[in-house]
Structure formats: structure tokens, C-alpha cells
UniProtKB/TrEMBL annotation:
GO terms for cellular component: mitochondrion. This is sn-1-specific diacylglycerol lipase ABHD11. It comes from Petromyzon marinus. Residues 24-235 form the AB hydrolase-1 domain. It holds the Pfam family Abhydrolase_6. Its EC number is 3.1.1.116. Keywords: Hydrolase. It catalyses: 1-octadecanoyl-2-(4Z,7Z,10Z,13Z,16Z,19Z-docosahexaenoyl)-sn-glycerol + H2O = 2-(4Z,7Z,10Z,13Z,16Z,19Z-docosahexaenoyl)-glycerol + octadecanoate + H(+); 1,2-didecanoylglycerol + H2O = decanoylglycerol + decanoate + H(+); 1-octadecanoyl-2-(5Z,8Z,11Z,14Z-eicosatetraenoyl)-sn-glycerol + H2O = 2-(5Z,8Z,11Z,14Z-eicosatetraenoyl)-glycerol + octadecanoate + H(+); 1-octadecanoyl-2-(9Z-octadecenoyl)-sn-glycerol + H2O = 2-(9Z-octadecenoyl)-glycerol + octadecanoate + H(+). Transmembrane segments: none annotated. Belongs to the AB hydrolase superfamily. One of its GO terms (molecular function) is carboxylic ester hydrolase activity. It is an enzyme of class 3 (hydrolase). PANTHER family: PROTEIN ABHD11 (PTHR46118).
Length: 239
């Protein structure tokens, strides 16, 4: 069995009765991070009558979580299980997953239903995702970026990267989302000596992109019968 990696997470703790309810764990999509859910998490942790503890998580190879050479949904669900049964909050928890995070949430619920009090899946289904073709273009554009001339502040580095992405990714909203992954490298990162780089483990994502578009076949007899909500965008090609 694969070993789980250490996931970075933030906790917005509820008080009073909310602290006794199952916590809500947010799992982001490809190229995202726990910051995607921060404002939602903080707002709902302290809702008067329905507040509950909120946990926002960075997936492996994303955000501040550990990098690993592999990232199948089975491995990512092991990461979530380790978080749920460790210090991230007592199970069961409500898992809210968007896109890749939705598949991680479903894989976790199918393998360990006792850990999942409820499931909210945003814009994805437990099948091969066919609408993901643009992601291959995004990855290709990110692979071609040169950080060699990136100096000064992070925002200056992002501007340089933006100018390189723009010819291949005309949608500025998508570029701004991808640019959240530009980060200052630590001295120990080595590499080409550039001061800035991608925060995501792009090599691992490229290697596993087909696996991330797909969904693992559940074990014989595996099922999840807890409360489940699927939400899809009206114009979304992903569900």
C-alpha cells in the first residue's frame, strides 16, 4: 500500500454546538489550493445556528503540501484518510470536493464510508471526464514558461509569466488562476537556479493526467449510501 503524504491544511474552528457537528473538509481541483475555499470556510465556520468546523486542504503536489512522484486517486484518498484519522479532525467528516477534489472525495467515500458523514461533489462525476481537453493546453503552456528572467517581486514574476502564457491561453481569468501557482523557490529547491518557479509538481501532473481524467474502478461491492449532493454548472462540460 502506498504511503500517504503530509497535507497542508487550515482549520476554521466552530464554537459551541457547531464544534460537535461533523467538520467540513474542502478538497480543491487541479492547479488549485486550499486558498480557493478560505473565504467560504471562514464565513460558514461562524454561522450562528448552522456553524461547524471547516478544514481547507492542499492536495499532494499542490499548494504547501508535500510533493510525490505519483498522484492517483487511490493515493490521494489515502492522504485524506490519514488527515481525517489524524489531527485534522475526528471522523466522520463532510467532504466537499471540486473537480479533481470531487473525485478524491468520492474515492475516499467508496473505500472508507465510515469516515464520511456526507458528500458534496462539484462539477464532476465518478467516470472518465471528457471535457478536460483544455487542461492539456494549459499544461503545455505552463511547461514552456521560462522563469530565467523573473526577478524582483512575486507580482513582477507573475507579470512575466502572464506575458508568456497569454498567446496560448487568451482567457485572462484562467491565466490569473494558473498564476496563483507562481512561487519563490527555496534555496534547497535547486533546479535551473531561477528564483521563481511553479508551486505545483508539474512533472507529476503531466505523468498522471490521463489517470486524473479517469476514475478508479471501485472494489467489488463498494458503495457509499450517505447523504450526497452533486452540483454541476449549467454550461459546464465536466458533468
Amino acid at each position: 500500500e502506498s504511503r500517504p503524504v503530509q497535507l497542508a491544511y487550515d482549520v476554521a474552528a466552530a464554537s459551541g454546538e457547531g464544534a460537535t457537528r461533523p467538520p467540513v473538509v474542502f478538497l480543491h481541483g487541479l492547479f488549485g489550493s486550499r486558498a480557493n475555499f478560505t473565504s467560504l470556510s471562514n464565513a460558514h465556520a461562524h454561522t450562528h445556528e448552522r456553524g461547524r468546523t471547516m478544514v481547507t486542504v492542499d492536495a499532494r503536489n499542490h499548494g504547501d503540501s508535500a510533493h510525490a512522484p505519483t498522484m492517483s486517486y487511490t493515493e490521494q484518498s489515502l492522504d485524506v484518510r490519514a488527515l481525517l484519522t489524524g489531527e485534522g479532525g475526528p471522523p466522520p467528516a463532510v467532504l466537499v470536493g471540486h473537480s479533481m477534489g470531487g473525485k478524491v472525495a468520492m474515492a475516499t467515500a467508496l473505500q472508507w464510508p465510515e469516515l464520511v458523514a456526507g458528500l458534496v461533489v462539484l462539477d464532476v462525476a465518478p467516470v472518465l471526464t471528457r471535457g478536460f481537453t483544455p487542461f492539456r493546453d494549459f499544461i503545455g503552456a505552463m511547461e514552456r514558461v521560462s522563469f530565467a528572467g523573473a526577478q524582483g517581486t512575486r507580482s513582477q514574476a507573475r507579470a512575466l509569466v502572464d506575458s508568456q502564457l497569454a498567446p496560448r491561453i487568451p482567457d485572462s481569468t484562467i491565466r490569473q488562476f494558473l498564476l496563483t501557482n507562481v512561487t519563490e523557490r527555496r534555496a534547497a529547491d535547486g533546479g535551473d537556479g531561477a528564483r521563481f518557479g511553479w508551486r505545483v509538481n508539474l512533472e507529476a501532473i503531466v505523468r498522471h493526467i490521463d489517470c486524473l481524467f479517469d476514475f478508479p474502478r471501485p472494489a467489488e461491492g463498494a458503495s457509499y449510501s450517505g447523504p450526497t449532493l452533486f452540483i454541476g454548472g449549467g454550461d459546464s462540460p465536466y458533468i
